[in-house]
Each structure stands twice: as structure tokens, then as C-alpha cells.
Amino acid sequence: MSETTSPVTTQTLAKMAAKGERIAMLTAYDFPTARALDDAGIDVLLVGDSLAMVVQGHDTTLPVTLDQMIYHAEMVGRAARRALVVVDLPFPEGQLDLDRTLAAGARILKETRCRAVKLEGGSEQAHRIEALVTAGIPVMAHVGLRPQNIHIDGGYRVQRDADRLIADAQAAADAGAFSVLIECVPSDIAAQITAAVQVPTIGIGAGGDVDGQVLVTNDLIGFTSGYMPRFVKQYSDVRGQIVSAVQAYSKEVKSGAYPGPEHQF
């Protein structure tokens, strides 16, 4: 747990990175999960558009809507008492006209207790980042693998163009982003990005030479099935525990063992 006990802000993250204190970030999509993660001392909670895949069961992040993001973000923002809560701008709120992006960011801050948004893209999004920040909406940039760009990139692939990645991160930071998330990038390139920008970097599949790490909580706790990315470390088997508990309950219901006398009025 970080030594910080007061609410985490964008300035807190900058100070942590400057001191060499690593930043711990996880996703959250509902109140009880967010409250548990916050109680555990997590620094940043991301209401990711990954909820399209993790919660809704879609194959990509593209189907989730702004209204759905706000619905989940309101729960997470209400649960968090310490962590900084960041909300993804879902497709296509960050790709169409600038006024639409600003309106989406404003809705997130007004209708939830969350305090920042995350926007996929680098150099080509610099004007959008600057406009959001000018409007008082803190922005975490997202470079490397961009899940919202899956149909252009042709799948989820490690990104290896060092010059472009560094330029994207620099452009985002120069435009006012308070942090840069780096996804699926070789560790040596992520280290170069971290050295090149003056804001904290958060890695996911980007090695250890960054200022912090983020994972999808369901992957970390083992509450998922199917493909598991190489960069994920699974710390528990929640899905297995749920299956075992439900099987035990079902067996006792069918045998008549539950409810027992102690469970009745």
C-alpha cells in the first residue's frame, strides 16, 4: 500500500513517480469490487471500456456506450474513498468531432464522482487532449496497443515501432496528459518512453521499467475463463472458488441438508 492516506490526485501520482514509488492501478466496474480494491490501498481505479468484454461478454471493447460507462463509473466513483478514479472515453466519443469528446468528458465528471478520463491515441489526439485539459478534464493518454483500433490493426498485437510510440507519448504529455498508459510494448521501448516523458507511465504488458502497473481485476483474481494474456499474473482462483461453493450449495439443496435448523426461524 502507498504511504499516501489522503485521496489520490493527479498531482499525487506525479509526486509518487518523482520519488520512485510505484503506482498500482486496477480496473473496477461495480460498487463492491471498487470498495474492496480501495480498502486494499489501490492508487488508481480504471473504469475501463474493457467492461464490454469482461462484464458484457463482447469480443471487443467497441460495443460499450457512453451511458453504460457512466452507469458503471457512478458506482465506482461512489465506492472509492481514496483511489483516483479514471474513466475510459468509449468508442467513438474520442474519435468523432471535438465538441462530442468534450461533452462526453464533461458528462463523466458531472454525473459520476470520477476525476479523470482516459483517451486512446497519441500524436493525432494531442489537440483533443489539450482541449479536454483546457476545459478542466484531466486526461490519461493511452499509447501502444489500442483496443478501440482493433479493426485497423487487425488484432491485438505487440507494438514495436519505437519512434512512433515515443512520439505519441511525448505529444500526449506535451498536450497536458497527466499520465501515459502503455499497452503491449516491449519493455525496452516502454523504458525509453518513460525516460522521454515528464509524466508518470503506467504499463500493461510493458515490462517493469515504468512508473506503475495496471491489470484487469478479473484476470488478477482468477474470475475469468479462456485466453489469459502473457503479462497477467493470477493471484487467486475466484472462479474456481465460486464453482466449488455453488456445487456444494446445490448438493445440499438437493439432498435436503440446507437449510438446516440453524438457518430457520
UniProtKB/TrEMBL annotation:
Q: Can you tell me which residues bind Mg(2+)?
A: D49, D88, E120
InterPro entries in the cross-refs: Pantoate_hydroxy_MeTrfase (IPR003700), Pyrv/PenolPyrv_kinase-like_dom (IPR015813), Pyrv_kinase-like_dom_sf (IPR040442)
Query: In what pathway does it function?
Result: Cofactor biosynthesis; (R)-pantothenate biosynthesis; (R)-pantoate from 3-methyl-2-oxobutanoate: step 1/2
Among its keywords, does the record have Calcium?
no
Cofactor mode of binding and number, as noted? Binds 1 Mg(2+) ion per subunit.
Name recorded for this polypeptide: 3-methyl-2-oxobutanoate hydroxymethyltransferase
Tell me which Pfam families the record gives. Answer: Pantoate_transf
| Assembly behavior | Homodecamer; pentamer of dimers.
Gene3D superfamilies assigned: Phosphoenolpyruvate-binding domains
Give me the residues that bind 3-methyl-2-oxobutanoate, please: D49, S50, D88, K118
Tell me which EC number(s) this protein carries. 2.1.2.11
* Molecular functions per Gene Ontology: 3-methyl-2-oxobutanoate hydroxymethyltransferase activity; magnesium ion binding; methyltransferase activity
